[in-house]
Amino acid sequence: MVYLQITLKIPDANRPAAAGIYQQYKAPFRDTITGAKSKELLVRSEDVQVLHGFDTAENASAYLQSALFNADVVEALKPLLEAAPDVRIYQVA
Fold this sequence. Notes:
This is ABM domain-containing protein. The protein is α+β, with helices and mostly antiparallel strands. The chain has a single domain, classed as Alpha-Beta Plaits (2-Layer Sandwich). It has three helices and four strands. Helix 1 runs antiparallel to helix 3.
């Protein structure tokens, strides 16, 4: 299993809107992205993380280049962010 972790700096006031974007694109992610296994929203006091599960690192990287990610998700989240997202890919040991 491979995880794509995207950490977002989102002010408290914008978190409900960000959660709505997560819900809007969760099913399209699972249904249309090659190798997609899971998608979870993790909320902490300091940030919000979206944890995506994939079958391979290549498919995780490919998602970052997809139209769903760039044209839809990124564009929808831009007005809600305080800083650029931190994007990391992890391989389960």
